[in-house]
Write a structure and sequence with these properties.
Layout (H helix, E strand, L loop, with lengths): L3 E5 L3 E8 L2 E5 L8 E2 L1 E4 L5 E3 L1 H9 L4 E3 L11 E3 L2 E3 L1 H20 L5 E6 L5 H13 L3 E7 H13 L4 E8 L4 E9 L2 E10 L4 H15 L9 H17 L5 E7 L5 E7 H26 L8 E5 L8 H9 L12 H13 L9 E3 L1 E2 L3 E5 L9 E6 L3 E2 L2 E8 L7 E8 L9 E9 L9 E8 L4 E8 L4 E8 L7 H16 L5 H16 L2 H19 L4 H27 L13
Parallel strand pairs: 1-10, 10-11, 12-17, 14-18
Antiparallel strand pairs: 1-2, 2-3, 2-4, 5-6, 5-7, 8-9, 12-13, 13-14, 15-16, 19-22, 20-21, 20-24, 23-26, 24-25, 26-27, 27-28
Helix pairs in contact: 2-3, 4-9, 5-6, 5-7, 7-13, 11-12, 11-13, 12-13
This protein binds adenosine-5'-diphosphate and magnesium ion (MG).
């Protein structure tokens, strides 16, 4: 019995099986490879999944759900046709359709599947995906990361030599960039970075906005249906430019008139410029985190439907100095890789076992103060994001006050510099003998395993006292809404601080660089932040503060230049550590 490989996408889903020594995509009941991940349950109780439901997004948006993959592992629900659905339930309806269509096409029952998920999916999101499979009558104990699947598809064509790949997965609503290293029978994701608000939809919106501006239509003047039609046309024209030089958009106006726009590749390129800037930043982050430089990247592999964007290869080529690799059809690559994985699961003789490793997508650490006067504990990183799992790290933390009796080790998750801006997952409190500050210390070990369990062990060597805490699923103690709310609260608190706007901006910029970087750069940014904070705390007259601002600004510019320069070979400052004054 065949195991079904499934790419359960935010926008589109596909199925693939391993057959006669190669992956074979399975067509749905309409003869299509792509099944839109859209579900509609109308007021009369008629259920539609896939292409039909996608049409109903325009005619009956209230009873139609799309992009629910974004909400996997959160408590959000959707109401369609008066019934409430969770994201796994909606995903189950899509999986169910894929399963039934595959049974029809293959002429045999299907009870088992391998499903791909984004590499950054945490344990809750993975469990939600497995639950969806279960609800659809599929056993899915194998979950594979989308970039690993893409790398598997690449290996199938390009053999077994060593390769360092960038998997550039540009889908309907998200961009996921992964650095993947392949050697022997190992496929290892060494870094991931992404923007979950950057996808094909944004291109459609940019085109629609331009259409309105060009035709002097006020954005608010279109009703919801016209807006939906406009976006639909924008998408169609965008796709048409993959094979044609022009595409024409046309919207009916008042009294039989019409609004039109002729879209060319040049125009599309211009409309995408802002999106390209954002892509560049995501790419820089992934490459920087992988510890590789741009010259060491063997291939950039374009994956995902939006990778067919007519102007994308030119943009990638301009960044990397060589064209990206296009493996046949970008929007089926992940599915084909999952098909290979299904073959491995079936233990087909034609392919050997491949080891795939995972990374921790977020930073874990604890809070520390510089001395007993320091009011703003900051994050001391224990496990850096993108560390390969399982991972374990040990560090020492000292008392900061004389006769201090307890040491508290906070367990934090996040990329922010100040401890309070990160998510607190728990704490370990341990008693130490009272002595002068800095004499007593604890040995702290963070261990994060492949099942999403974090173990924190704290030991005081002088008393041999030891305490251990476990945190399951460090990533999802808050729902996305709660997280958003918490972040807003924090932002409000921060803005109350007594600083000029310019000083706030400098601090915020430094905090962002801290959040975006890893390794030595992150440490240096932290040091710089400490220093500047201390300067601000000391006060000083306007002239001095002005000088300090100028200094801080130049330091930050050097840091930024250093980050981008090293990756994209721009002009590199000799050193960003000397202070330039
Ligand atoms: P996801 O992985 O999010 O489910 P897909 O990889 O299927 O999504 O990508 C869907 C996106 O691909 C849509 O935004 C669609 O407009 C876009 N797309 C499909 N074909 C083309 C094309 N020829 N040119 C540009 N964009 C395309
Ligand atoms: Mg996808």
């Amino acid at each position: 019995m065949a195991i079904l490989g499934i790419d359960l996408g935010t926008t589109n889903s596909l199925a693939c099986v391993w057959k006669d020594g190669k992956p074979e995509l399975v067509k749905n009941s309409l003869g299509e490879l792509l099944t839109p991940s859209v579900v509609c349950l109308d007021k009369e109780g008629n259920l539609a999944v896939g292409a039909v439901a996608k049409e109903q997004l325009i005619t009956d948006p209230e009873d139609t759900a799309a992009s629910f993959k974004r909400w996997m592992g959160t408590p959000k629900t959707f109401t369609l046709g008066g019934r409430t659905f969770t994201p796994p339930e909606l995903s189950a309806l899509v999986l169910e359709k894929l399963r039934r269509d595959a049974e029809e096409a293959l002429g045999e029952p299907v009870t088992e599947a391998v499903i791909s998920v984004p590499a950054y999916f945490n344990d809750n999101q993975r469990s939600a995906t497995k639950l969806a499979a279960q609800l659809a009558g599929l056993k899915a104990d194998r979950i594979i990361n989308e970039p690993s699947a893409a790398a598997l598809a690449y290996r199938l064509v390009h053999g077994e030599g060593d390769a360092c790949l960038i998997i550039f997965d540009f889908g309907g609503g998200t961009l996921d960039v992964s650095v993947v290293e392949c050697f022997e029978n190992v496929i290892e994701i060494t870094a991931i970075a992404g923007d979950n608000r950057l996808g094909g939809n944004d291109v459609d919106e940019a085109i629609a906005r331009y259409f309105c501006a060009f035709n002097e239509l006020r954005p608010g003047s279109l009703n919801a249906e016209q807006q939906a039609i406009l976006l639909r046309q924008a998408e169609q024209c965008k796709c048409a430019l993959s094979w044609s030089n022009l595409a024409v958009m046309c919207l009916p106006g008042p009294d039989g008139s019409s609004y039109t726009l002729t879209l060319t590749r040049d125009l599309l390129f211009r409309l995408c410029e802002e999106l390209f800037e954002r892509m560049k930043r995501v790419l820089a982050r992934a490459i920087r985190d992988s510890g590789r430089n741009i010259g060491e990247i063997d291939h950039v592999i374009l994956v995902g439907g939006s990778s067919k964007l007519a102007v994308l290869p030119d943009f990638i080529a301009s960044l990397f100095g060589k064209p990206p690799l296009i493996l046949d059809d970008p929007d089926t690559i992940v599915a084909r890789g999952v098909g290979v994985c299904a073959g491995i699961k079936e233990r087909s003789g034609e392919i050997r076992d491949i080891v795939m490793t995972d990374v921790c997508p977020f930073t874990l650490g604890t809070s520390v103060v510089n001395d007993d006067k320091d009011q703003n504990p900051h994050m001391s990183v224990m496990i850096e994001r993108n560390s390969v799992l399982p991972v374990s790290r040990t560090d020492r933390f000292y008392t900061t006050r004389d006769n201090q009796e307890k040491i508290r080790v906070d367990i934090l998750q996040g990329e922010e510099y100040y401890a309070r801006d990160n998510l607190k997952l728990g704490e370990v409190l341990i008693t130490v003998p009272p002595e002068p500050a800095g004499k007593q210390w604890v040995k702290t070990t963070f261990t994060y395993d492949i099942n999403g369990v974090l173990q924190v062990e704290v030991e005081n060597p002088s008393t041999a006292r030891k305490k251990t805490a476990y945190v399951v699923n460090p990533s999802l103690h808050l729902s996305e809404e709660e997280l958003e709310q918490k972040l807003q609260e924090l932002a409000a608190i921060r803005s109350q601080l007594d600083q000029s706007e310019e000083e706030q901006l400098l601090l915020a910029t430094a905090e962002r660089i801290f959040a975006e970087s890893t390794g030595r750069l992150r440490k240096e940014t932290g040091r710089l932040l400490d220093l500047y904070r201390a300067m601000l705390a000391e006060g000083g007259g306007p002239a001095r503060r002005h000088r300090e601002r100028k200094w801080m600004k130049s330091q930050l510019e050097k840091l930024e230049k250093y980050r981008e320069g090293e990756v994209f070979d721009l002009e590199l400052p000799d050193s960003w550590e000397d202070d330039g004054e």
